[in-house]
Design goal:
The complex is a heterodimer of chains A (about 450) and B (about 300). With about 450 residues, chain A is an alpha/beta fold. In chain A, about 50% of the residues lie in helices and about 10% in strands. Chain A has one domain. In chain B, the strands form two sheets. A five-stranded mixed β-sheet of chain B has the order 3-2-1-4-5. In chain B, strands 8-7-6-9-10 form a five-stranded mixed β-sheet. In chain B, α3 packs parallel to α5, α4 crosses α6 (about 185-205) and α6 crosses α7. Classes of the chains: A alpha/beta (about 450), B alpha/beta (about 300).
Chain lengths: ~450, ~300
């Protein structure tokens, strides 16, 4: 008797991950090594959260710690435990954003650590499982958080934690409502006003950075960085577009592991060459018909934020279902995806636009239209909505998204629970039943499409 | 030797087995109450069903399992989720069904189905046991009323009170507090059933309200659960004769599709699919739906391999 996707009966399948991802790991390690060396090299360290404002700091020769990226790294390297426990024992509850909780925990650990911990290298800290404790303390904070209420307060919490002595700058990212008559995605008076408001704040932030460094801001350097960033964004989106073919040569999970170069890795020739390599690998896969999983039978969309504890594990899990997670809101609707808007000679407006249309900052009607376009483009059979327990910002619109794709595209959805970096919120058996039910519904539908005999 | 197929719904609190003959007629069904995903319970319901049918396991040419323990059963050739099987079983029992509510031990689900018994949309309870059979069990224990008596007793309530907690454990605390305040058992139990209904209303909203609406699962036998659901939804529920076996029946029908497909002498996959599609359509020579005792049904089967 033949079987199909049933998990119990499916062999363990390894996803065919992109080889070029390993280059990304090296870049990330190099970057964090530099951060850990910052103090010894006399560089200022900025802690920040939210959108990718790091080019602003890079142009001023400041090193940066992005709270979410740092927490995700800890989770991916199984180093998150001590930081999360430290935050909880300080009084930050488990339901607080796990990124914030982990990062704040690092702040708590930084207060408690002994002298021997300072000046630790990244590799030593990683080897000792003490990444959370040894991350260099901040000399400044910048907050630029769209939509999420925790994000907007997270830097202030850290500011308080570090004794209210460290300078802080807050950029307020307006929510893109799209309610005015002429409003559309990237268009309309409301969006233009929001963009102008952002640009004004970015300029203010640059003046503030000048005060912190005591140096005149290098706008040419910013243009140079943004030229690399724009190119990397362009190459990434071109490579993503190439995944519309069947079988898809790369999956959502590959794109999640390729986020660092368009999120916090310094803008330079390496990020461009990284995406050139990724694109070339994808082109070769398209040429020979090689897929992101051994056998693509279903094509899925991932709505919601990533579960960083489980990237490889989830990639293999879906490979076992013969399902390619082709696209996702998180990866495909953010991270310099609107690269065309960036004028490298005057990059602030293009930067502001990309910050405004990040994947949580669009109101549901605008967001749903963009998601539906992606589902059509990538010929999606079903949608997995990952409701991260501690990221309500991502999961708030998910019932609306689920409803829209079911009604308008007629595809089944499965809502699963998990988290970004707190493993304890993920329950595999509950997830399995929902995913398998969705896959069974897709299978049933596919078979019914076969035309009836006369 | 006559041949049969079997569907087993190995649930978190009960195990259900249905045996069909190759015409799709139910020859036996059995329900066993034996603890959480108990292997013993599954074995007992299988043995009972075999005894009722007066056949041996060897005569069962294909078995399909569903429910929380679906992967643990050696006797089953394949497993499907409760969503797929309940949808299939419910449509077999009530062919006009468009929406199925199933309140099981561990989870509750609302499934929109197409006329072929295929799942078009579904929603399940997330996060906790609120709105499940376990919730009822825990609160029956708190009120010290046997599970089977709690429904009828809840209907005697004269005053509407509210249990606000959605967590089964906290609701238990709330129930104890209400009893301590001197509220009567029927009133407290009425509130318990209203709380379940409010959870299900939320799930129905996610899938979209539609009629005819069928309720399956053991909780469908509880008159207070049905009363409060109907009240909260403003719709009439159709309760099949034996709602608890819907999942097992669905599994058995899928086993039947698969067994027929295995028996077919189709040369290639396309032919197999075509013959399956033929079998799916009432009026073709292979369609045995009207003979099945589980109501007038369409036996069909895109879900087979």
């Amino acid at each position: 008797m033949s079987n199909f996707f049933n998990a119990a009966e499916a062999p363990v399948v390894k996803a065919n991950r992109l080889q070029s991802s390993s280059l990304n790991n090296r870049m990330v390690n190099d970057y964090w090594t530099e951060v850990f060396n910052a103090k010894a090299e006399g560089k200022l360290v900025c802690w920040y959260e939210g959108v990718a404002i790091n080019p602003l700091m890079q142009a001023a020769d400041i090193r940066w710690v992005h709270g979410e990226a740092w927490s995700a790294l800890l989770a991916a390297r199984n180093n998150e435990g001590p930081a999360q426990e430290a935050a909880e024992s300080r009084g930050y509850m488990k339901e607080l954003c796990s990124y914030a909780r982990t990062h704040i925990g690092c702040g708590v650990l930084a207060q408690n650590r002994g002298v021997e911990a300072s000046g630790s290298s990244f590799s030593d800290a990683l080897g000792a499982g003490l990444l959370g404790e040894r991350v260099p303390a901040p000399d400044m904070f910048i907050s630029a958080y769209p939509y999420c209420s925790t994000g907007q307060q997270w830097d202030e919490m850290l500011f308080r934690l570090f004794g209210k002595k460290i300078p802080i700058f807050n950029i307020s990212v307006p929510w893109v409502w799209g309610n005015k008559k002429d409003a559309g995605y990237l268009s309309g008076a409301e969006f233009k006003e929001a963009t102008a408001y952002m640009v004004r704040q970015l300029k203010e932030c640059i003046k503030w950075i000048e005060v912190q460094t005591g140096k005149k801001y290098d706008y040419d350097k910013l243009s140079e960085i943004m030229a690399y960033t724009k190119k990397a964004g362009e190459l990434r989106m071109e490579a993503i577009d190439m995944c519309a073919v069947k079988p898809a040569p790369a999956s959502f999970f590959d794109w999640t592991t390729s986020l660092a170069p368009v999120n916090f890795v310094p803008g330079g020739p390496e990020i461009v060459s990284y995406f050139e390599t990724v694109k070339a690998e994808i082109a070769e896969r398209v040429r020979v018909g090689e897929g992101a999983i051994p056998q693509e039978k279903y094509r899925l969309f991932w709505d919601g934020i990533m579960n960083w504890n489980k990237i490889g594990w989830l990639a293999n899990k879906f490979a076992g279902y013969n399902a390619t997670m082709v696209a996702g809101r998180y990866t495909h609707m953010g991270f310099w995806h609107e690269h065309e808007c960036i004028d490298v000679n005057d990059p602030l407006e293009g930067m502001a636009i990309n910050y405004l249309v990040c994947p949580i900052n669009l109101s549901a009607p605008l967001m749903i239209e963009e998601i539906i376009k992606l589902c059509k483009k990538f010929e999606i059979d079903g949608m997995v909505l990952h409701a991260a327990r501690t990221c309500r910002a991502f999961s708030n619109p998910q019932y609306l998204i689920a409803d829209a794709v079911q009604k308008r595209l007629g595809i089944p959805v499965a809502m699963i629970e998990g988290d970004m970096v707190d493993e304890s919120f993920y329950k595999d058996e509950l997830v399995n039943a929902r995913l398998e039910a969705m896959m069974e519904a897709i299978e049933g539908k596919k078979r019914m499409i076969i035309p009836h005999a006369a | 030797m006559k041949q049969y197929v079997m569907g087993i719904d190995f649930g978190s609190t009960t195990s259900k087995t249905v045996i069909l003959d190759m015409e799709g007629v139910i020859v036996a069904s059995a329900v066993s109450h034996k603890g959480s995903v108990s292997d013993e319970g599954a074995k007992a319901s299988i043995a009972e069903a075999l005894a009722i049918a007066d056949i041996s396991q060897k005569e069962v040419i294909r078995a399909v399992s569903t429910g929380y323990g679906r992967r643990m059963l050696e006797v089953s050739d394949k497993s499907y989720t409760e969503i797929t099987c309940h949808a299939r079983g419910a449509v077999a029992m009530v062919p006009s069904a468009k929406l199925v509510i199933d309140i099981g031990g561990q989870d509750s689900k609302v499934i929109a189905v197409d006329p072929q018994g295929l799942v078009s949309q579904f929603a399940m309870n997330d996060r906790c046991a609120a709105g499940t059979g376990k919730f009822l069990e825990a609160l029956a224990r708190a009120v010290a009323v046997p599970l089977e008596e709690m429904g009828p007793m809840a209907l005697e309530a004269r005053e509407n009170i509210v249990i606000s907690s959605m967590c089964a454990t906290f609701a238990e605390t709330e129930v104890v507090a209400l009893l301590a305040e001197g509220k009567s058992k029927p009133e407290v139990l009425g509130a318990v059933h209203a709380a379940i209904a409010s959870r299900i209303v939320g799930l129905v909203a996610r899938v979209g309200k539609r009629e005819p609406l069928v309720m399956t699962g053991g909780v469908a036998q509880n008159p207070a659960a049905v009363f409060h659901l109907e009240k909260a939804l403003g719709l009439k529920l159709i309760i099949p004769e034996n709602p608890q076996i819907a999942g097992a029946l669905g599994a058995a029908l899928i086993a039947l599709d698969e067994a027929r497909s295995d028996l077919a002498d189709a040369a290639d996959e396309d032919d197999k699919v075509d013959s399956q599609i033929d079998a799916a359509r009432c009026g073709t020579p292979t369609c045995t739906a009207p003979k099945a005792k589980a109501g007038v049904q369409v036996i069909h089967g895109p879900l087979r391999h």
